[in-house]
Structure formats: structure tokens, C-alpha cells
Amino acid sequence: MSIERGLFLEILKDAYSAYYTIAPVEEGQEDLPLAFRAEYRSRDEKYFLVKSATIWGNEKIEYTYVFSAPAFSAELADRCAEFALGEMLPKVKPHKEHQYTNCKVILVADSLDEQTIRTVEKKRFSKSYGPLSTHGYSELIVAAVDLEKGKTWTNRAGYDLVKFFGKLFALRNEDTQGNGK
User: Fold this and answer.
1) Can you give the pTM of this predicted structure?
2) Which of 24, 64, 74, 129 has a beta carbon 3.0–4.6 Å from 119's, enabling a disulfide?
């Protein structure tokens, strides 16, 4: 059930481009296999009669970093996550209408070893802003995708990514098996 990594990255980029803004990769990051960045911003608000009479507002922001390599060592996976956090945290601007700014790290590999999988599953980071998180929070979401096995492993915060990648694998299988036409 192996999928070519380049093709899978194009499928992933296409899936993210529906709701996210895809950002180009700057030169100078040769030591990390960053494939692309994606940014999601959402603002909801309720107002009374006119927009200047806002009752409440809510902002959600997510920065996604997709890394691609034939294989990831535990050290490289950790460095990728730390790089993404280091780049995302200065962008966080907490205020009373800020709900969250999350950092999502996706590692796409042809195959993964057990140590890398354990590193991904144990990776944690969360930060609250303001007293009792009144100005929102940030969380690290990490996923590792093994294209050879067609499986995904995540940390606790990224549990919903298993379903997302499962759907991408299922769509890919339907495309390769044909639909009888």
C-alpha cells in the first residue's frame, strides 16, 4: 500500500489549500526537510445591530509545518518540532478575543522506526495566556505518517489527525483501484 512521497505531499498540499494559506519555504533551512508551511486564521464575532457594537469575538489561528524525508530519526523529529515551535511562538498575540494559536507539525516519511514513533507520541507543549487562560492558549500537535505502512501516529493533542490521514489514504486507494468505469 506504499504511496510515493512526492505524490502524497501534493495530495496533502491540495487538502490544506482549501482552508489554509500555503506559504513558501524560505531558503536557508537546508538542515531541516521542510516541505511547506500552511496558515489558518478564523475570526467569529457577534454584534448588536451595527458592526461597531460587537458583543463578542473569537480568533483561532493554526500554523502547520510539513516536513518530508525518506526516514526521520528521533533527534530529527524533535528538531523539526522545536523549529516549528520556535518560529510560531513569537507570532502569538494574546488578547481577550484570542481562543488559540496552535502549532501543527507533520512528518511525512517513507518509513518510521519505533524510537521515532515513541518520540512523536511523547512530544508535548502547551501554554496558557492571561489568568485562567482568559487570553487563549497554544498547543503543539505532532503527527508522523509512514507511507509504506499507510499508518499515522500522533501525540495526544493530534488524535484527530489519525482520522484525517486515514481518509487521505482511503481516497488514494480508491483512485488506484479504479471505480469500474
Assistant:
1) 0.89
2) 74
